[in-house]
């Protein structure tokens, strides 16, 4: 087994609760038991989980050496990850941190199962966090009005990035020099600037490229839902996806030095996509100190005063 120790807090309990709720789902790391205990005079939660001895998804592909990694294998892996996300979304849970280091294999064996772990940023998507008297609808950005859709679409963006890397060995939002650059990357994500360069993409099917385009939409509301993703022919007919050899294993081996940077960039990008709606405080019109609103107030006060004088 694997032991995870968390200092007890409402956030830690929420993480354990979300993971426990998802624990019976397919392709999700199972929690076996949870205990309370003390560690260094602090109350802790001890989470006993199944031990994932097979390592991370991309490390396993890196270690293949000369053995070809095919498009069909990539489709089967994406189907497995999608199955985990589909279960979570059916339970009204958005994972919000689907990234390479959270995708682990049960063992080193050939028949090992890929599973999703780490529910530190998971969020229940049914609660409406904006049930406060000061909630002024026409002041709210559209995505804040639909946190459920917004949070779940974060997982779909992750599926797009992971699928892209699986098919070529490098991420979609990447600089031409081969170095990941944070400020530039954020801008490229926002503008949806990525391509399918040769030779890595020359043999990849059009179905795969189309699916990536539908997942990496810049507008979160336009991205595929998990149901649409699972019904896409490249996923639900993965057994007939061409067994085209990919450049992935070679590129991952050559770019080992940059891989940690790539993972950091994905972590950073996901952090900008997560919006904790219960932390959002929306000002009511009476307490707002908006410059234009203040100008309008003065104008209204002036017209009221002059109207009062006329009445007298």
Automatic annotation (TrEMBL):
<keyword id="KW-0418">Kinase</keyword>
<feature type="region of interest" description="Disordered">
    <location>
        <begin position="288"/>
        <end position="312"/>
    </location>
</feature>
<protein>
    <recommendedName>
        <fullName>non-specific serine/threonine protein kinase</fullName>
        <ecNumber>2.7.11.1</ecNumber>
    </recommendedName>
</protein>
<dbReference type="GO" id="GO:0004674">
    <property type="term" value="F:protein serine/threonine kinase activity"/>
</dbReference>
<dbReference type="GO" id="GO:0005524">
    <property type="term" value="F:ATP binding"/>
</dbReference>
<dbReference type="InterPro" id="IPR027442">
    <property type="entry name" value="MAPKAPK_C"/>
</dbReference>
<dbReference type="InterPro" id="IPR011009">
    <property type="entry name" value="Kinase-like_dom_sf"/>
</dbReference>
<keyword id="KW-0597">Phosphoprotein</keyword>
<dbReference type="GO" id="GO:0000165">
    <property type="term" value="P:MAPK cascade"/>
</dbReference>
<dbReference type="GO" id="GO:0005654">
    <property type="term" value="C:nucleoplasm"/>
</dbReference>
<dbReference type="InterPro" id="IPR000719">
    <property type="entry name" value="Prot_kinase_dom"/>
</dbReference>
<dbReference type="Pfam" id="PF00069">
    <property type="entry name" value="Pkinase"/>
</dbReference>
<keyword id="KW-0067">ATP-binding</keyword>
<keyword id="KW-0808">Transferase</keyword>
<dbReference type="GO" id="GO:0034097">
    <property type="term" value="P:response to cytokine"/>
</dbReference>
<keyword id="KW-0547">Nucleotide-binding</keyword>
<feature type="compositionally biased region" description="Polar residues">
    <location>
        <begin position="301"/>
        <end position="312"/>
    </location>
</feature>
<feature type="domain" description="Protein kinase">
    <location>
        <begin position="1"/>
        <end position="235"/>
    </location>
</feature>
<dbReference type="InterPro" id="IPR008271">
    <property type="entry name" value="Ser/Thr_kinase_AS"/>
</dbReference>
<comment type="similarity">
    <text>Belongs to the protein kinase superfamily. CAMK Ser/Thr protein kinase family.</text>
</comment>
<keyword id="KW-0723">Serine/threonine-protein kinase</keyword>
């Amino acid at each position: 087994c694997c032991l995870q120790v968390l200092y007890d807090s409402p956030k830690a309990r929420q993480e354990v609760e979300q993971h426990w709720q998802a624990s019976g789902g397919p392709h999700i790391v199972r929690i076996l038991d949870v205990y309370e205990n003390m560690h260094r005079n602090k109350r802790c939660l001890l989470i006993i989980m199944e031990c994932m001895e097979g390592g991370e998804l991309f490390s396993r592909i890196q270690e293949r050496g000369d053995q070809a990694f095919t498009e069909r294998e990539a489709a089967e892996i994406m189907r497995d990850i999608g199955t985990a996300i589909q279960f979570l979304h059916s339970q009204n849970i958005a994972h919000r941190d689907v990234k390479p280091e959270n995708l682990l294999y049960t063992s080193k064996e050939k028949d090992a199962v890929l599973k999703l772990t780490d529910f530190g940023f998971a969020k229940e998507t049914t609660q409406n966090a904006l049930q406060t008297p000061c909630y002024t609808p026409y002041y709210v950005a559209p995505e804040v009005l639909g946190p459920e859709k917004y949070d779940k679409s974060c997982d779909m963006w992750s599926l797009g990035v992971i699928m892209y890397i699986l098919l070529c060995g490098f991420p979609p939002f990447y600089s031409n020099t081969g170095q990941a650059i944070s400020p530039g990357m954020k801008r490229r994500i926002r503008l949806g600037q990525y391509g399918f360069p040769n030779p890595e993409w020359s043999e990849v099917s059009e179905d795969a490229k189309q699916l990536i385009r539908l997942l990496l939409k810049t507008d979160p509301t336009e991205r595929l839902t998990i149901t649409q993703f699972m019904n896409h022919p490249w996923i639900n007919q993965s057994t007939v996806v061409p067994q085209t050899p990919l450049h992935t294993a070679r590129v991952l081996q050559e770019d080992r030095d940059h891989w940690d940077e790539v993972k950091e960039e994905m972590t950073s990008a996901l952090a900008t996509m997560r919006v904790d709606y219960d932390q959002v405080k929306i000002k009511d019109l009476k307490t707002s100190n908006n410059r234009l609103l203040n100008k309008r107030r003065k104008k209204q006060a002036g017209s009221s005063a002059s109207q009062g004088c006329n009445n007298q």
